[in-house]
Design goal:
By secondary structure, this protein is an alpha/beta fold. About 35% of the residues lie in helices and about 20% in strands. It has two domains: about 170 residues, 3-Layer(bba) Sandwich (FAD/NAD(P)-binding domain); about 270 residues, 3-Layer(bba) Sandwich (FAD/NAD(P)-binding domain), CATH 3.50.50.
Amino acid sequence: MTPNRRIAVIGAGISGLTTAYRLQEYGCDVEIFEARSQSGGRIGSSRRQGYLLEHGPHTILQRNRATRDLIDDLGLRPEVTVANEDANRRYVVRDGRPLPIPMSFDGFLQSDLLSTRAKLRLLAEPFVRPRNDDVDETLASFVERRFGPELLEYAFSPFVGGIYAGSPHRLSVRHGFRRLWELEQSGGSVSGGAVLKRLIVDRFFGADEGDDVERDLFSFKGGAGRLVERLTESLGERMHMGAAVESLHKVPGAGIWTLDGEGAAGEDRPPFDDVVWTGPTYRLADLSVDGTPIGDTDAGEVLDDVYYPPVSVVAMGVDADRVEHPLDGFGVLVPEVEPYDILGCLFISTLFPGRAPDGQALLSTFVGGARRPELAKAPDEELVDVVRDDLEDLIGLSGQPEFVDITRWPRAIPQYEVGYGRVFAAANTLEEQYSGLHLGGNFRDGIAVPDLIETATDRAQRLATRPPRFHTPLGRTA
């Protein structure tokens, strides 16, 4: 009988878990190795003092079939909680006031968010000629060239700070916002009426063009962490926690892999046909392949240079009567040009029921990122003061919070900066150099959870359809 294909997955974030789960479903003999004692990567939820906290992504968008199918196959559909309709309202700060961001082209023309001059500049966008050179342009340059500085400052900049924790002056439009870049390349005009809505709103919150999946912003009754909990449960003994893979070795003449590292090595463990790496690039640089650290290779040096800015998430439970703002929306985003320290604040108890005790509001505020990396490293007391001071001014928060929880991510989100094409090329080079090693994760597949699920699903299908090798108990090919 032909044995199943054996595949090792390194990293138990959403990419690794989805890859391993789908490989298991395809009948592969898969094992997953995670250096930490907890799975989920950046996704995790906990309940404290009556508050349901998110320590990473606070919401998930069902915008592709892969995400929908994963939820259904895991039996999580009854636990899905769709965001309150108020989530469609998002605020952006201008001149110290949270103003609702328009959700249509006409809305921008009527909004107080933009000046009359900026609105006239927006109407002139279809007459802007597209660039026809091969320059890797920043998002800031692209938006200012096509729409003018105000749309950059009060539409794109706050969204970039909220989604990437990044700066539009550093991020590449081609690599970080490819659909936006492709629209100019293919048609010239980027706005063209309601197209602007698709770019600003759907780029971050919408579905791929042509996808018939209903777009719901959702979480689970137990928080986003339920997704990784259920994936972990489904993988059972295939999961190896506290197993740090330090090196890979190719069996001479066999084209198969063995692993080494604390908790990962095992004399009785047969070798693997393929190894899928789904961790961050700075961990990949420390991985040795046949005695050579990847970080010592030219491609490895490129990957090791990927920037992950620090971000701190400050969750506050406050008396709802102490907030002047109605909290009738997704949250408020802060443009870089405004005199505030925070990136933005989500109104979590508005989005989903059961997130805070009765009469209380749960606010999650993001600090740091590429904009203010040093602030993310501030002591707890200073962080809380920064958040409280800004929220006092922006939403009328008064008094001290009833509850505080701080999650720190020293290296949060990979920044798809100008020149990021070198990173994709480096990943391709390593896969060509080390046949059977496959690289995935948010440094390559996008930073949104649905994108990572979709790419992991596709990768699992490709690997599962390859012919397996034949392994004896001693790890030799037959």
